[in-house]
Amino acid sequence: MIKKITGLAATAALLIALTGCAGGDSGSSGEGDDNIVVGFSQVGAESGWRTANTTDIKSAFEDAGIELKFSDAQQKQENQIKAIRSFIQQQVDVIAFSPVVESGWDTVLKEAKDAGIPVVLTDRAVDSEDESLYVSFLGSDFILEGERAGDWVNTEFADTDQVNIVELQGTTGAAPANDRAEGFRNVVTDPKFEIIATQTGDFTRAGGKQVMEAFLKSNPDIDLVYAHNDDMGLGAIEAIEAAGLVPGQDIKIVTVDAVKDGMQALADGKINFIVECSPLLGAQLVEIVEKVVAGEDVESRIVTEETTFTQEQAIEALPDRQY
Ligand code: AHR
Known about the structure:
The chain is of the alpha/beta class. 43% of the residues lie in helices and 18% in strands. Strands 2-1-3-4-5-11 form a six-stranded parallel β-sheet, with helices on both faces.
């Protein structure tokens, strides 16, 4: 952990540095003192995306020689709040976390700020009005992702009169669920499009399957599934096949993420289009942490670069896909 030195201690340290006289062994800062310690609270392990994100973050910190205290919140906000409080108590140098939901963070973020520990938001945003509660937000533009899904829908169904859409939403209250819903509605505005059902599948494959089964029972005429992530789309495929229909043909599917399993389904024609959301945030997070600890300025918002995939593009990208 980096020691924060002030007042007399700082003056003594300066004298030691200038004279080179530390007095026996005690003056040696020792390797431990120079080590950066970061506390990271992860959402959980709900999806292929999340697993890839965790792996990437852990290996980036290992490569950088930075100690990472990792905590899995199992999709529960109260677990993340507990983890953040524990990181504050342990006086880590930086706290990073991916907030499971957008709201309800002000109190604990204020506690971190009062303890002098900078916080970096990773992947997901919070809705705090006080932006001084965190130093940077690194992650995707989820509204843009929803708009990209919607743009594809507009083109794909340009010659269709009436399009019945069902939506598998992400975790209720999570930034990607809120924003992907908003972005999609920003561009899918023609009255011929009707979102006939929308429900959360909690970003999980099991959730997507279960909700899609219910949608199929109560809606005989579904043209399109808009799933907020690949995992829910993959669950929907299982439900559609179990109902004797052909995913990608009888019912078209657009998803977000572009993890390997999703890309394979796209290559196989079971998903029709995927909007990428990159989980590879580790290297950029390390960079932010190093700058913050060095007292350098960091950008308050760093947007991840992403693309979209058609079937042909998925076939081409699959062999080199890292996750
Ligand atoms: O916050 C990113 C989202 O969370 C990913 O799209 C989803 O797969 C994950 O669970």
